[in-house]
Amino acid sequence: MSKKPLNIGLVGYGFMGRTHTNGYKRVADFFPELGITPVLKAVCGRSEDKTKAFSEQWGYESYETDFEKLIARDDIDAIDICTPNDTHAPISIAAAKAGKMILCEKPISRTTPEGEEMVAAVEQAGVANTVWYNYRRLPAVTLAKQIIDSGKLGKIFHYRANFLQDWTINADLPQGGAGLWRLDAAAAGSGVTGDLLAHCIDTAIWLNGGISDVTAMTETFIKERMHTGTGKVEKVGIDDACAFMCHFENGSLGLFESTRYARGHKALYTFEINGADASLRWDLHDLNRLEMYDHSDEGPQRGWKSIHVTDGEHPYMDHWWVPGLIIGYEHSFVHQVADFLKALEEGKPCEPTFKSALETAKVCDAVLESGKSRQWVNV
Ligand SMILES: NC(=O)C1=CN([C@@H]2O[C@H](COP(=O)(O)OP(=O)(O)OC[C@H]3O[C@@H](n4cnc5c(N)ncnc54)[C@H](OP(=O)(O)O)[C@@H]3O)[C@@H](O)[C@H]2O)C=CC1
Ligand SMILES: O=C1CO[C@H](CO)[C@@H](O)[C@@H]1O
């Protein structure tokens, strides 16, 4: 079957540049039913040496060192944004104006108003768009969504999530530079709230519905760091840790915690949801497993059970290996590419769109505001 090409212009060749490119390279082999196939047309970064090396290693046909030039090219259909958060709005808005489809990394923006401009730009241009909240596309997380939507959990009382890391405990780390732009408020917007809790909030809204109000506690443990831009020691403007409570619109209570100061934890993302009839829990470190407690089980065998989400009947799994064999983190990005291409074929939006991802930005802003005011804040 001859496939319709979708010419990709990737901006950013770092961590996410690699995961997305791997997704584009794998998708046609593992999702052969798709009629559209990505073509690695061009990659863009500011450093010419590094961008050229990436383009050669990963098989891009060409490279650019200016995102405006990439966007202006007639041979590019979709712009994929894998750059620090302060660049999401200018790249998206320019791409939308040029009529390009956009796949943008999370968080959609540094702030809600910035995100609103991005939503307006894609809606005015009528271009396909999505935000890479990839954890939704791990089979066990998608299975949790299916179980919750079936009503099996009954009335929901609680949702709790954690995202714990420990990589910024070292006070000598500067703010700014590759990867370390996350410590610079101007580039990142916020700290763990926009970087890590945004994932937890996206999953929570998807699984359990909207969040109505929040009360938060934020802390910046290391108050000053060398800034790579100015070469001076400057005040740190991001939140190093954040915990918040919230009400969901369905009446349930939420409890969220994220920090980069939990010694020993590198990327511990967990969530649990408790309903009247059943509970579910999931842990990124054991990502193919979904645990479930079903109160309708009777007798001494009632208890937490482990669903090994590796059978052909589980979400996405019929595209991979024989039943029982596992997949990993990188597959969530392959799944997002596959879902984006399928949505294009069907003329449907690929969730989360810019508009849906703005809901997460609004919760993040309310959390940060509450962390400062120490008051409950409506979303
Ligand atoms: N979905 C997920 O799970 C994850 C999402 N992310 C998100 O992905 C985004 C990128 O993060 P990550 O890949 O870790 O970042 P990296 O620091 O690894 O890479 C950033 C890349 O952006 C390029 N870049 C920066 N500014 C520009 C510019 N103005 N024009 C063109 N290229 C530019 C850099 O190259 P150069 O310096 O040469 O310009 C570099 O290649 C962030 O928004 C982050 O929040 C990150 C990790 C996981
Ligand atoms: O999921 C993630 C894992 O951690 C990274 C930071 O270290 C985040 O940027 C990212 O979104």
From TrEMBL:
Every GFO/IDH/MocA-like oxidoreductase domain range: 143-281
Keyword Oxidoreductase belongs to the record: yes
Domain of life assignment: Bacteria
Residues forming coiled coils: none
Name recorded for this polypeptide: 1,5-anhydro-D-fructose reductase
InterPro entries: Gfo/Idh/MocA-like_OxRdtase_N, Gfo/Idh/MocA_oxidrdct_glycsds, GFO_IDH_MocA-like_dom, NAD(P)-bd_dom_sf
Keyword Oxidoreductase set for record: yes
Pfam families reported in the protein's UniProt record: GFO_IDH_MocA (PF01408), GFO_IDH_MocA_C3 (PF22725)
Molecular function per GO: 1,5-anhydro-D-fructose reductase (1,5-anhydro-D-mannitol-forming) activity; nucleotide binding
EC number: 1.1.1.292
Keywords from the UniProt entry: Oxidoreductase
Domain (Gfo/Idh/MocA-like oxidoreductase N-terminal): residue spans on this chain: 6-131
